[in-house]
Amino acid sequence: MSEATGATPPRTRTPRPRRSVGRVPWWAYALLVLAAVVCLFPLYWMFVVATTDSATATEMPPEIVPGDNFFHLADLVFTTVPFLQSIANSVLVAGAIGVGHAVLCSLAGFAFAKLEFRGRNALFVIVVLTMTVPTQLAIIPQYLIISELGWVDTLQALIVPGLASAFGIFWMRQHLLTTLSDELMQAAWIDGANSWQIFWRIAFPIVRPAAFVLGLFGYVTAWNDFLWPFIVLKSPDTYTVQIAIKALQNNFAIDLGLAMAGSFLATLPLLVLFIFVGRRMVAGILDGAFKG
């Protein structure tokens, strides 16, 4: 009938085959489980020793079942050193350093990435070169400066030198180069905004996920720092949590159960922190990984 009338038959659309999403193989899950076990086992072993005694750490085969001595050792930790005060000091120091990393490194990275001033490239090269200097070489001049300021045995001796880092400035500069467009900067200049307004209202909200991750890294680094607080702090009232753990050990013998109990108590605040901000941290890292 269609040939007689000359009409063409209607075309029928052939459905496109759907792309099947490949399933993750079983061995990938097995590797992830194995990696999780390897990473978590030191924490579990620390808890096992903290619930028994020092002899557990040297037994062969090792004991892998927790005991019932944790609360006794935890009470001994709090009575031996001012542990709660040390935790409060660590929260203050690490919190200030984390906020300083997030804001000051972002501000310096914004200046190096988007502002034009004389000597910008030379100053940035100097900042990057400071990452090649070992931390141990900077301790003596840093201590002399802190001593001249009268900050020995004070918490500001820990906070002020750690408010910014060369790595943080480099990271935020590279992030701002790829996320903040020059056209947006020029539009803000035309609207009458100054450099600080552009940074605080435009640049910083854009890089806030990366700044949050950087601040979290600074928080964890300050929490776990031992060498510099051990040199600067003298009195128990100013101890951070790592120095308090060191104070649990005497010069002749080490009670591993007591030390592990203190270490586990010092790790709990970080575990709680990562439970609440872990997903946001991963999102911030991935946000920086897919820019550009």
Description:
- The chain is mainly alpha-helical.
- It folds into 2 domains: 26-68, no CATH class; 72-289, MetI-like fold (Orthogonal Bundle), CATH 1.10.3720.10.
- It is built from 14 helices and no strands.
- The protein has helices at 2-5, 26-50, 70-80, 83-114, 120-129, 135-149, 156-159, 166-179, 182-190, 195-206, 208-224, 227-232, 241-247, 256-289.
- Helix 2 (26-50) runs antiparallel to helix 14 and helix 4 packs antiparallel against helix 13 (241-247).
- The termini are far apart.
- Residues 87-277 form the ABC transmembrane type-1 domain.
- Keywords: Cell membrane, Membrane, Transmembrane, Transmembrane helix, Transport.
- The chain crosses the membrane at residues 26-47, 87-110, 122-146, 158-177, 198-220, 256-277.
Give the topology.
Blueprint: H1 2-5, H2 26-50, H3 70-80, H4 83-114, H5 120-129, H6 135-149, H7 156-159, H8 166-179, H9 182-190, H10 195-206, H11 208-224, H12 227-232, H13 241-247, H14 256-289
Number of self-contained structural domains:
2
- In the CATH hierarchy, the third-tier topology of the largest domain is known as MetI-like fold
Cα-based radius of gyration, to the nearest Å: 28 Å
Biggest sheet descriptor:
none
Low-confidence parts, pLDDT < 50 over ≥5 residues?
none
Shape: globular
Helices and strands: which structural class? mainly alpha
Order of helices and strands: HHHHHHHHHHHHHH
Total count of helical runs of at least 4 residues: 14
CATH class of the largest domain: Mainly Alpha
If you average the pLDDT, what whole number results?
84
User: How many strand segments?
Assistant: 0
Second CATH tier, the architecture of the largest domain = Orthogonal Bundle
Strand residue content? under 5%
Share of helix among residues?
A: 55-70%
Domain ABC transmembrane type-1: 87-277
Keywords: Cell membrane, Membrane, Transmembrane, Transmembrane helix, Transport
Family: Belongs to the binding-protein-dependent transport system permease family.
Pfam family, one: BPD_transp_1
